[in-house]
Amino acid sequence: MKKIKILVINPGSTSTKVAVFENRVSLIEKSINHSSQELSKFASLNEQYDFRKMIILQWLNESNIDVNQLDYIISRGGLIQPVTSGIYQINKKMIEDLKSSTLKHASNLGALIAHDIALQIGQKAYIADPVVVDEMEDIARISGHPNYERKSIFHALNHKAIARRHAEMMDTEYNKLRLIVAHLGGGISIGAHKYGRVIDVNQALDGEGPFSPERSGSLPVGDIIRDAFSNKYTQNDMLSNVVGNGGMKAYLGTNDGKEVANRITEGDNHALEIIKAMAYQVSKLIGEMATVLKGKVDAILLTGGMARDEVITNEIIARTNFIAPVHMYPGEDEMLALAENIFLMHNGKLGVKEYI
Ligand SMILES: Nc1ncnc2c1ncn2[C@@H]1O[C@H](COP(=O)(O)OP(=O)(O)O)[C@@H](O)[C@H]1O
Ligand SMILES: CCCC(=O)OP(=O)(O)O
Hints:
Elements: E1 5-11, E2 15-22, E3 25-33, H1 36-39, H2 48-62, E4 72-76, E5 87-89, H3 92-100, H4 107-121, E6 124-128, H5 138-141, E7 142-145, E8 148-149, H6 156-169, E9 178-184, E10 188-194, E11 197-201, H7 221-228, H8 235-242, H9 247-252, H10 257-265, H11 269-292, E12 299-304, H12 310-320, E13 326-330, H13 334-346, E14 352-353
Parallel strand pairs: 1-4, 4-6, 5-14, 9-12, 12-13
Antiparallel strand pairs: 1-2, 2-3, 5-6, 7-8, 9-10, 10-11
Bound molecules: adenosine-5'-diphosphate (ADP) and ligand LANB7ZPL.
Family: Belongs to the acetokinase family.
Keywords: ATP-binding, Cytoplasm, Kinase, Nucleotide-binding, Transferase
Main location: cytoplasm
């Protein structure tokens, strides 16, 4: 049977990851990091569109991959309406929703770029397990005021991929496990997975949770409201303190975890204090999710780029391993998970869902 060639696109807040797969095998991959300084040149997310598309096309060109030989294009999906887990063909409605989304995240650009390249070569484009996969229980949606519902916005693709990988390692199935998955990337999300469903998770974009390399996470809400009406700040100033220029970036001037790790090795005590505070906040939310699972937790899984950093992971392990064994899955399985979605669909083992 002819092998299929798949272009996989994954724009994140601190990187653009690209890969070309032949069936389930990665032929070539690249992760292009974006410093906060580089991204600050763009006044809005939409302005990053040409830049992110160009680096993908340039990389394909440098890698001698002819776009016309691609059979499928798939991207990590962005902030569309809440959906169930699965693979979706990119359609007109999805494009419209992405273009008009009030919430902004780099993953919104992925589907737009994938759609564009697919149109150019006469193929179809897809997304799978976008950041709005919603499996929350009703009780978890209640925030504290009826005007504000808690929302499921998180690294759904990697949460599910790592949880499935862990189940395979343990010689069992994802839908038989009770897991807490903590993705430590540009954003940080911590979810309670109960028998294959993420029944609670922090809104990891601009909602709540631990601070991250570029996000503030939960902030004292009264102080925020007073600042917002003080005439000292624009709406964009306030929003950028929450996403883009919050968290580690605000405290240490960088969104780059590797740079901070080097500073700590060189004896920077302030950097150490901030990183320990981030690990402390992650641990607290893991504790919260343990109560969501009523204390019956099979394992805690740490994943994402920052899970490569032992200062962070050791701190989290020390604070949470009384709950359940902590397993490390540094980096992400997103590229493979996306390619696998296409492979299974191509072979008729996975149905495509329609976005409506
Ligand atoms: N070895 C490492 N040590 C510390 N931080 C790291 C390491 N590798 C990656 N990171 C950090 O992880 C974060 C990015 O994680 P990632 O999961 O790739 O997120 P995103 O998809 O948001 O770009 C960045 O802050 C990056 O600097
Ligand atoms: C919007 C939730 C997903 C997220 O934060 O992804 P990154 O860490 O890649 O920015």
